[in-house]
What we know:
By secondary structure, this protein is of the alpha+beta class. It has 19 helices and 38 strands.
Amino acid sequence: MAEKPxxxxxxxxxxxxxxxxxTHQRIHTGEKPYExxxxxxxxxxxxxxxxHLMIHTGEKPYxxxxxxxxxxxxxxxxSHQRTHTGEKPYxxxxxNKxxxxxxxxxSHLMIHTGEKPFxxxxxxxxxxxxxxxxIHQRTHTGEKLYxxxxxMKxxxxxxxxxSHLMIHTGEKPYxxxxxxxxxxxxxxxxSHLMIHTGEKPYxxxxxxxxxxxxxxxxSHLMIHTGEKPFxxxxxxxxxxxxxxxxIHQRTHTGEKPYxxxxxMKxxxxxxxxxSHLMIHTGEKPYxxxxxxxxxxxxxxxxSHQRTHTGEKPYxxTECKQxxxxxxxxxxxxxxHTGEKPYxxxxxxxxxxxxxxxxIHQRTHTGEKPYExxxxxxxxxxxxxxxSHQRIHTGVKPYExPECKKCFSxxxxxxRHQRTHxGVKPYExxxxxxxxxxxxxxxRHQRTHTGKKPFExxxxxxxxxxxxxxxSHQRIHTGEKPYExPECKKCFIxxxxxxRHQRTHTGVKPHKCTERKETLSSSSALIMHQKIHSLKKTGGPPGV
Length: 543
């Protein structure tokens, strides 16, 4: 092995040649003597400048013989070719994980050593390599050097641009050998493969939760530390990572750069588009091992599995209520703070999340994009369609552990469980009456305010609840979707059907407190009780 007589005075790293040591020392001094005449960017090495110039010239002289992809330097081509051959010659001695290039191994080793020598001067966040630091610094400066020639969108690093371009080209060169799903870049494929293998190598030292990749662990750790270094300049809301901040900022700008080619619907982030596309394809690759229910994305499956395990890892520090999903906790916290940042431009009603606002806006537009294939009934929300379809299938996958009663939706189970626990966490500020669900509180509060936000477009009659409006609109349309299985008579709402069915079953659930008589409907009970009150007072004049 060659001797390394020359040692860096800063970090004691050794080098076989003095010029190599001098180049290395520029990491510590910050010296960048080579400047690009096009954009004035500076570099520590002339070779880095030469490679950078190819961004401006577009020159990519090194071509892959497998997929014809071109590269600006031979080392990048060599690394890329290993994605085809599967060769990973660089092995970590700690965990035996293999890598296709030495730089990725060096970065990986810092996970084990904890070494992060590159520090951001703005927010003091540390990084294991200088390139990650440079990309991070652009979140502070707002610098976006790389522009898409298709839609003119700009990016802070070239890899993000390359990934973005695949949206336009539709290119997905990396295929999973297990389920044949394709991906636009290798890192996504690697993450996906962990779903099949179950591998989660990154463990939180606080709560022992494991993650399939390090970035997820980093974000998770901020739940314990409470750290949120990325702040929105518009509403001052803080976030634990820059990507979530970027997505949030689109709620202010209204930017929706990701468009569905099927129905032209636009989305603020690519993951929402990917999930949406599965509505058109019907693809649900993630299956629950307990109840065999399938999901279009892994996060939805993870959340669902907690309905079986009962796990609720997200705790509200105000009232100690636990939640199975972090998003549910964030929304719940807004009940305590009163924060509702998303406002409807039609009726000025405010909401705690943007998805609720979008769904609400459909009450004004009348849009119902989700159709039942059985009865052609349409719905404004996909979740309502899913619940409705269980009327046809009879599926009730959610069982109460107390009384074994089954429900078609998890929210109905949660509401039901409060009948056992007696918990009513939602209190009216006017009369202090408590409710087991937030929607019941919302309906109740309208009895104080007299507010009727839901208007019939036909006769302008207004209603305090959307369900009342829906039933009322059937008077105009003549629609009667609820059919009695006994005599085939149809009704405009389910309560009218329930009342009618009692004429067949003979059930009389409403009991008179005076004579213990039972009646089939609450209205009949009210009329009956009036007879007792009239008798007590001697009856009306003339009787």
